[in-house]
Design a protein that fits this description.
The structure holds 3 protein chains of 3 kinds. Chain A is α+β, with helices and mostly antiparallel strands. Chain A folds into 3 domains: 49 residues, Uridine Diphospho-n-acetylenolpyruvylglucosamine Reductase, domain 2; 112 residues, Uridine Diphospho-n-acetylenolpyruvylglucosamine Reductase, domain 3; 109 residues, Enolase-like, domain 1, CATH 3.30.390. In chain A, 37% of the residues lie in helices and 26% in strands. Chain A has 12 helices and 14 strands. Chain A has a 5-stranded antiparallel sheet. In chain A, strands 11-12-13-14 form a 4-stranded antiparallel sheet, with helices on both faces. A 3-stranded parallel sheet of chain A has the order 1-3-2, covered by helices on one side. In chain A, helix 2 links the parallel strand 2 and strand 3. In chain A, helix 10 runs antiparallel to helix 11 and helix 11 runs antiparallel to helix 12. The longest helix of chain A is centred in the C-terminal third of the chain and has 31 residues. By secondary structure, chain B is of the alpha+beta class. Helices cover 33% and strands 16% of the residues of chain B. Chain B contains 6 helices and 5 strands. Chain B has a 5-stranded mixed sheet, with helices on both faces. In chain B, 68% of the residues are buried. By secondary structure, chain C is an alpha+beta fold. In chain C, helix 1 runs antiparallel to helix 14, helix 14 packs parallel to helix 15 and helix 17 packs across helix 18. The chains are: A alpha+beta, B alpha+beta, C alpha+beta. At the B-C interface, helix 3, helix 4, helix 5 and helix 6 of B face helix 2 and helix 17 of C.
Chain lengths: 300, 171, 739
């Protein structure tokens, strides 16, 4: 293996429509090609430069305007796959509805990477230590996958499978991520690895508080295990609890129950688990505060 | 197999149109440096960390080491060489002519030493100030997460960014 | 304008840099920016393993690959090399031959084994994948203590215990002082391995000229030194070679030596008769460019009941990596060891320095090069003395400082400090620290303040004669009949602002307008001999040379019958030119006191640096803008060592931090705004009164930061933690303290 900043040679095809992209993908599959879709390239190109990935064919879908944009509908907010982090960060609807996402976007990589990186690319990449999957998991996002045969929608939780492993079939393209509407408070907390900016632990908490009682709660953790995961024990302990420090702390302490942590030179497994618990408490406190602020704000 | 190993790249760089055939794997930074001989855009790393290669793509700062030249085809690029309106005048020892306000602020504040990160820093700060014309010191520091300088401790880079912001607001 | 008046106006003034407009507009000319037609591109095949016997190297397939001009292996390099070994070694040292390309064994992951030369960099990289090297792997050892231990894997047959050198520095009677001491304080301390990370990686472009002369553009801090070394390694007369540094993207010591990859590239260009360029990639740089630090100190000090330190003793183990680079021994023998007493009157001393070889990237000078380590070890011990004696750390320093009346002062280790007022610097620091109330921090976070005082030797002149047989850096000052002045100097700046500073100096000394002075360096054809720029030497040595050359020009101008400005004299005389040498001016001893205020989040172990206050004394200041710029950058690097930077290897010697995704250099958001102040005790050792100061920030801030964190952690009874002070390390220590 030679580390270099030059990707290995490949063939490049630019898709000019979703249909064209699917056609190119089928064609490559039929030829037995190792083909990869190129969206913003902020995850794939670095891996290709280090020759950790060497696809034979790149199908560039970056120009497909039909896969860009945010729309709100009956089933929630749909973020089309090629929407960049930058576009999301600047969308006031996102900031108003999903403050946790705005939290995450502010600390995700850097402004140049955010200008190119896309939501669909992030989801399809299956990185165990990406920020956004934690937020999308906690927001109960659904992933829409499109192939020549049609579209299917699957919960992100079942789409993510392991380290760089997802439920994406060879002939499919991630075309959108949909977040159901819900009047909630949300927050994302991150402890970053200082060189890569990736989270050693990142926790997103999403709660609904009604009449001083937590009526729904979702907590998702990234950077800690082989894939971002929902902390179901913690979630269960929150429902019907009062949004007070003790119950939040107890829930935070439960986010790592049964988790087999990652461990590397940047953080040991026990430290990652500890960080997840600390961040969970902080995220829950802020999410509760936002949930109650939203409600009292409505009263005015 | 779909696609081709060579691609035609048509880009507008600093206002001038260029067309060239290059291997598909050519990175935008190498296209700018080796093909167009615009060597002000630098390469300081191979993992998209250092930001020395920052250019504007359709007006938005990106890392040109993590964009294929093919992806930039059909788009507009601004590099450090194209930032100042008129770079012709010979700069004297004091405040130099032919400099963009950010560049001038860098000189006034001693915001560069070896100068290698500087073009990327200037292009990143241009984006930062376009998104937030009145940033705090902390806004600038956090906004530069994608740019590494090993000489200045960032102190005078931050000072230059704040001074340039003031000047651009008043302009 | 009178000369004196102009001098007052220019020297010491914050003139903005004349270097900047070109660099700011993308018109810099770094090595990789130069591309003569027909240039071939090289890729270096490196060992993927830390320690192995080479069974075979098969390059046939690579030679047949598209676009490949040649592949070089050790077998193709007969008569080239070896590289220069260590310089200034004590008797009994081992100095193994450092090959250009490995032939029999590889000794670190990253050692060059072959060079592929092709029409494009991409094709060279592709072909490099086809070079098949079979390795018979051997156990590896990476740490200085482990390498020195009995039974460790051995690197060099000529060094049967991995010991590269030993030197014991003894003064007075340490044993007696320890026996009589009221306090004895000892600590094992690690100054961990660091990567310099100049933002421009190393590079070289070798262009064979039609006249048979070889032009070598390379990112080097020492163009003349590189020319001499390269000529010797390649078996060429030096005058057949020109070395041009051009613009340089930083060096920090690592661009001082010549490297095996550069030699191979130059050899390829000579052999192929075409320009060949190679520029290191960042991840490659973490393996191929020298690292710094990597020492373990077991040191102890003795103090009387009042906290007066009477003795220091112990052992410092220092790794040199797989091979010596020329200046690496000097950093240990001439800096780290002798500077351990810092600015304190310590009369009894017994420290052994042990240098070892290990299966890691070779060590070279990195900003400070022995000075930061000495100050770190000493200043941690001083704080531990204060802790044990129940005294204020500032008071302990006050009681031990060499007083102003004792200068010139000869340390027990034999160094002569030129001048200083250490107490004045510390007093100003304390005043500035206390002028601002303690910052507000989140509830439960721990606040800590730490200080460190230090002495920085600078301006070393190697005792190696130049081509004319004399020792010294030269400067040539030429005044044209039109009154335009050219200053060519043998030091070789690379980001420090020498064009501006030397122009200020010459304009001030000659009494000519600043705008009329042009400064030239970094080109062996255009600049006279000099040792280059490293070790905080350029203001002292280059500045002295410029001073003497300007004096010679003024002397010549005075020979005109009537007193007149130098430009008019030059017009009368048809121009004036003089070359002068710095000779070997004595080293200067800058000093300073630094303070840090930190907060620690006990839940995560994260350290926030709230304040850095730097007080520096570097004598006469030529340009305060440049001095403060040096302080800022060095402080950032020093904080990097204290908090995040660490080159790590696994048990097999595989690098674990060989990219900027894994090796954390400071970013803008991780640093506070640095508060920098200057005090001045001019140096009597050179005509300008200047002292070298380019490394002071790395020397002062590292111990100040660690002392601050240890002060913050005092409620937990934590006495010492090794750098880098990562959140996990602090969290784990707090967990342990809480039981």
């Amino acid at each position: 293996m030679i580390a270099t900043m030059f990707p290995a040679d490949f063939a490049y095809a630019r898709a000019d429509s979703l249909e064209h992209a699917l056609c190119l993908l089928s064609e490559a599959q039929a030829d037995g090609d190792d083909a990869k879709l190129l969206a913003g390239g902020q995850s794939l190109l670095p891996m290709m430069k280090l020759r950790l990935a060497a696809p034979q064919t790149l199908i560039d879908i970056g120009g497909l305007t039909e896969l860009r944009g945010v729309a709100r509908g009956a089933d929630g907010t749909t973020i089309k796959a090629l929407t960049t982090y930058r576009a999301l960060q600047r969308d006031p609807r996102i900031a108003a509805a999903f403050p946790a996402m705005t939290d995450a976007l502010a600390v995700l990589a850097d402004q140049q990477v955010r200008a190119r990186g896309t939501v669909g690319g992030c989801v399809a990449h299956g990185d165990p230590a990406a920020d956004l999957p934690a937020v999308l998991l906690a927001l109960d996002a659904q992933v829409t996958l499109t192939s020549a045969a049609g579209s299917r929608t699957t919960p992100l939780d079942s789409f993510l499978q392991g380290v760089f492993a997802t439920d994406l079939a060879g002939d499919e393209i991630v075309t959108a991520v949909t977040i159901p509407a819900s009047p909630v408070g949300s927050a994302y907390e991150k402890f970053e690895q200082p060189a890569s900016h990736l989270p050693l632990a990142g926790v997103c908490a999403v709660v609904t508080v009604e009449n001083q009682v937590i009526t729904s709660a979702r907590v998702a953790v990234t950077g800690v295990a082989a894939r971002p995961f929902r902390a179901l024990d913690a979630e269960r302990s929150l429902v019907a609890a009062r949004p007070e420090p003790d119950s939040l702390a107890a829930a935070a302490a439960a986010v790592t129950a049964g988790v087999r942590p990652l461990s590397d030179q940047h953080a040991s497994g026990p430290f990652r688990l500890h960080l997840a618990r600390v961040l969970a408490r902080r995220a829950l406190e802020r999410a509760v505060s936002r949930a109650t602020t939203v409600r009292s704000g409505r009263g005015c | 197999m779909p696609g081709s190993r060579d691609v035609i790249v048509e880009v507008t760089v600093n206002g001038a149109r260029h067309t060239a055939q290059v291997p598909a794997r050519t990175l935008l930074v190498h296209f700018l440096r080796d093909r167009l001989r615009l060597t002000g855009t630098h390469v300081g790393c191979d993992t998209t960390q250092c930001g020395a290669c920052t250019v504007a793509l359709d007006g938005v700062a990106v890392k040109s080491c993590t964009v294929l030249a093919a992806q930039a085809s059909g788009h507009e690029i601004t590099t450090i060489e194209g930032l100042a309106p008129a770079a012709g005048a010979d700069p004297g020892p004091g405040a130099a002519a032919g400099l963009h306000p950010i560049q001038r602020a860098f000189q006034q504040a001693h915001g560069l030493q070896c100068g290698y990160c500087t073009p990327g820093m200037v292009m990143a700060i241009r984006q930062l100030l376009s998104d937030n014309p009145d940033p705090s010191e902390q806004d600038v520091r956090h906004g530069l997460a994608g740019n590494i300088c090993r000489c200045t401790g960032y102190q005078n880079i931050v000072a230059a960014a704040l001074a340039a912001a003031r000047q651009l607001r008043e302009a | 304008m009178s000369a004196a008046g102009n001098r007052d106006n220019l020297i010491g003034r914050a003139v903005v840099r004349r270097e900047d407009p070109a660099l700011l507009t993308g018109r810099g000319q770094y090595v990789d920016d130069v591309a003569p037609p027909g240039t071939l591109h090289a890729f270096v095949v490196r060992s993927p393993v830390a320690h192995a016997r080479i069974v075979s190297v098969e390059a046939g397939a690579a030679r047949q690959a598209p676009g490949v001009a040649a592949v070089f292996t050790a077998a193709d390099l007969a008569g080239v090399g070896p590289l220069p070994g260590g310089e200034g070694l004590p008797p009994g040292s081992r100095n193994p031959a450092y090959p250009v390309l490995a032939a029999e064994k590889v000794l670190w992951a990253g050692q060059p084994v072959a060079l592929v030369v092709a029409e494009t960099p991409e094709l060279a990289a592709d072909a490099a994948e086809l070079v098949a090297v079979e390795y018979d792997e051997l156990p590896a050892v990476t740490g200085p203590l482990e390498a020195a231990a009995e039974g460790a894997p051995l690197l060099h047959s000529g060094a049967p215990d991995n010991i590269a050198l030993r030197k014991r520095i003894v003064a007075g009677d340490a044993a007696a002082a320890f026996a009589a001491a009221a306090h004895r304080v000892g600590q094992r301390m690690v100054s961990q391995r660091l990567a310099p990370v100049a933002l421009e990686p190393r590079g070289v472009l070798a262009v064979p000229g039609e006249d048979g002369r070889l032009e070598v553009r390379m990112s080097t801090q020492r163009p003349h030194g590189a020319r001499i070394w390269l000529a010797r390694i390649l078996g060429l007369p030096p005058e057949r070679m020109r070395v041009v540094a051009g613009d340089m993207g930083g060096g920090f010591g690592a661009k001082g030596p010549v490297y095996p990859d550069q030699v191979a590239v130059i050899h390829a260009a000579r052999t192929l008769g075409r320009p060949v360029k190679w520029v290191e990639e960042r991840s490659e740089s973490f393996l191929a460019t020298t690292h710094g630090r990597d020492q373990v100190a077991d040191l102890e000090v003795a103090a009387d009941a009042d906290g007066r330190i009477t003795a220091m003793r112990g052992t410092v183990h220092a790794s040199f990596g797989a091979y010596f680079t020329p200046n690496a021994p000097g950093s240990l023998l001439g800096r780290l060891g002798p500077m351990l007493p810092q600015g304190y009157r310590i009369e009894n001393f017994d420290v052994e320095l042990v240098g070892v070889f290990a299966n890691t990237t070779p060590i070279g000078p990195y900003r400070g090069a022995g000075r930061p380590e000495a100050a770190y070890f000493c200043e941690r011990l001083v704080d531990l003395v204060a802790l044990q004696a129940g005294l204020d750390p500032a008071e302990v320093r006050r009681r031990n400082f060499v007083p102003p009346a004792d200068f010139p002062y000869t340390s027990c280790t034999g160094l002569t400090y030129d001048s200083g007022d250490y107490q004045a610097g510390l007093d100003l620091l304390l005043e500035k620290l206390s002028a601002v109330p303690a910052p507000a921090v989140p509830e439960g976070h721990l606040l800590g303040t730490g200080i460190a005082s230090f002495v920085e030797p600078g301006g070393i002149t190697p005792r190696i004669p130049g081509p004319d047989g004399s020792v010294g850096d030269q400067a040539t000052v030429t005044v044209s009949p039109a009154g335009k002045v050219t200053v060519a100097v043998g030091t070789s700046g690379h980001g420090q602002g020498h064009e501006t500073a030397f122009a200020q100096l010459a304009a001030g000394l000659l009494g000519v307008p600043y705008e009329d002075v042009t400064v030239v360096f970094g080109d062996t054809d255009a600049a006279p001999f000099g040792y280059g720029t490293f070790g905080s030497r350029s203001a002292v040595a280059g500045g002295s040379a410029v001073y003497h050359a300007c004096q010679a020009v003024l002397e010549a101008a005075r020979r005109v019958d009537a007193p007149m400005p130098v430009a008019e004299a030059a017009a009368r005389l048809g121009g004036i030119s003089a070359t002068a040498s710095s000779g070997a001016p004595p080293e200067t001893y800058a000093s300073g006191s630094y303070g840090c205020v930190v907060s620690v989040d006990p839940d995560t172990g994260r350290v926030s640096v709230l304040r850095v206050v730097a007080v520096d004394d570097c004598g006469v200041v030529i340009n305060p803008l440049l001095v403060e710029g040096q302080v800022h950058g060095a402080v950032a690097q020093g904080l990097g060592q204290a908090l995040t930077e660490h080159v790590q290897y696994d048990a097999a010697g595989q690098p674990m931090s060989a990219s900027l995704m894994d090796y954390a250099v400071p970013l803008a958001a991780s640093l506070p705004s640095i508060e920098s102040y200057l005090v001045s005790t001019p140096s009597p050792a050179n005509p300008l009164g200047v002292k070298g100061m380019g490394e002071s920030g790395t020397i002062g801030v590292t111990p100040a930061l660690v002392n601050a964190v240890m002060a913050a952690l005092r409620p937990y009874g934590i006495r010492h933690l090794d750098m880098p002070l990562t959140p996990e390390k602090i969290w784990a220590a707090i967990q342990q303290a809480r039981g």
